[in-house]
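ESCALATION

Customer reports they have been waiting on this structure for their group meeting. Please prioritize. Original submission:
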Amino acid sequence: DFARHGGLLDSVLPRLNLPIARFDRGGAMADRANGFPHLSAANQRWFLALAEADQDLAIITTPVLDARSGQWMIQAARRLNDRQGGFDGAVVLQIDPMFFIDDYDRLNIDDRGMLLLMSRVNGMSLGRIGERIFSGDLVEFARPADPAAPADEVTPRLPPDGVPRIYSVRDLPRYPLQAYIGIPREVAFERYERHRSVTLWLTTIASLIIVAVTAALMRQSQRLHASMREAREAQATLRAAADGSFDGFVVMQAAYDAQGEVTDFTIRDLNARAAAMMDLPREQTLGRGVFEVLPHYRDTGLLQSFRGVMVSGQPREEELELVVPGLPNRWIRQQIVPIPRGVAVTTRDITQRKQVELQILDHRSFLQSLIDHLPLLICVRSMRAEMRGEIVVWNGAAEDITGLGADQVVGKTAGTAFPDGFGLFDPDDDQRMERESRVIDAERPLLRADGTVRQLYIMSMPLFDGAGAVEYVLCIAEDITVRRAQEQQLRANAAALQESEARLRTIADTLPAMVAFIDADQVYRFINSAYDREFGSRSIIEGRTILETIGPARYDRLRPNIERALAGETVIFEETEDHAGAERTLEVTYIPQRGADGTSVIGFHVMRQDVTAQKREKKQLLRLAQVDALTGMLNRAGFMQKLDEAMAHSAQSGKLMALMYLDIDRFKPVNDTYGHGVGDALLKAFAGRLAHSVRSSDTIARLGGDEFTIVMENVHRPEDAAAIAAKIVANMRGQFVLDGVKVTISTSIGLAYYDGGDLSAPALIEQADMMLYKAKQSGRDTYRAAA
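Update from on-call: job pushed to the front of the queue and completed.
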């Protein structure tokens, strides 16, 4: 957030795009931007110094040479504290030392003067003489031979050019740098020479007066010339900055009517971007009223905003929707600053971004409505460091099942919202999800505040942020109390079957589930009414074997479960079948019935229950949790599950599989230049072109940002995967047309293979990532494959 476009960094150091990163308390990189290299800080001396400090601390390091860019960088690190004041990591900013000499014109030295910054440790040097900037040229200095020379005076061992100068050195506070200033000798001795001239011409008062007046006029002329030059340079700099800005900039003067009321604002100056937003050449807008040029925007509130800032003298920043009949609605973000007799306005068209935000709000409203009406308990907990464990979503079913309202739970952690032994969450599950990035399910009792106990089937899954870290945990729970009670009741009734079959039939017929009893010879001895409605008349089923009733094909599928039940094991499984032209899912339970000796199995009870609706809802929620909302591809959670499945299949079958790791070369300049709307459109178009470049059996996932992966199963030869990688690289060179904006990009790909063995999924991902890094080092727009 600090480094994003238009964020706090832009307001402090606009458009410098300084490399910045954040490290966690262990020294691992947690976030980075603007090209900051991917590294660990755990063993860096500056990081250890920050960790051992007992107070807020900032460290400025010695300039170092960046191996990738070949530029010198000064690194500034600042300690981060948690809420208890403990060490929580560091934020690091890399600063080009060239910025330290950009304020050259502030120094009162001649145009031939020299400014040099030199590191006391590693010999880095950056300098400027007049308008010429140089770096990396080591200039050595020594003390002058004259012992009476000032302590800070130095002389160069080898003069940088033919201009004689007087040099001085000063250590820069807080930085490991020394500043050397060289003033031309004739400038330094200007005052001495003037006094000498006065002394020589003391022979005549008239000459002295003429010389003094002439010198004063010349000095005044020089100052006036210098002031005019500075004014021209400042005006040229301001104009260049305004014309190069992505924002429209307009300077306006208030226009009054006969009664002294402000009725319009006359345009005195504007940049090219503002003229383009008005759809007129700049020359045709100067001197005209804003609402003379744009009459249809007079009633949109702009006039009132300009007039309010001019009257109050207070700047204003706002986002405003411009609604004009007959024209498309536009959203603008503007900053209005008061100036004498008018205002200066900086404005930007944010229509596309606002439309995306409104679409996101619509999607969120739909998802919230879906969550609130689901019969399943839905709970979402934050795993962010600043609000770890806090509950952010608690739907109506959660209130009904637990007896706790959303106002009692949302915003609190499980430890404060729920009593001891509540049973909904397990801290060990959270640690496993963060460590293994996998879905965890369990069946647990839930203790309500009124003392009653509910049996829940709970499924917890991690939701990842753009950097791949677990940001939230989604918990889905189903109340299976009634189902378990039915199972218990079935067991109790089965135990009394031999004593009172009539009573058992009465009870069983009242159950919504299909219930049957099959003896040790696999013969149906009892079915309830629900079973009767499903399979036919009791007279047809009772007394017949399972094989005679369901047929050979289905019996072969059920035989392992039947044999386990007759061996004394309770078996629970799901069965999918076609019912009236539609697929449905049944949960089937086989419960063994033991004889009077308590050892032999005389048969087993069958309970079949239709769980099609619950399975459909679970699959929909799981699919939503594993799909990237922008591209429609799998997200990181879906990718990890697919990769585990593909590697398991490859290990069992012995068939080769491949993993591609790719990203968009130079995606950030596109995002910064045209905005996040065009950036998102490019990501969707890139994903669509990827889908047309691979096989229909391949799986594409977006991990976050501009990073994508492709899982390729059943690869015959490594060359086949390499050919597809080359095809993707070639296809991405074609131009993308995004809402009228033409963008040309490329892609780099890392390729790794797997055909069994002890290699883990993270290790395979690391191999592909390393190959991607080698492709980047080779100049991008290519691929590299592991050996």
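Sent to customer with the following note: The mean pLDDT is 83.
Escalation resolved.
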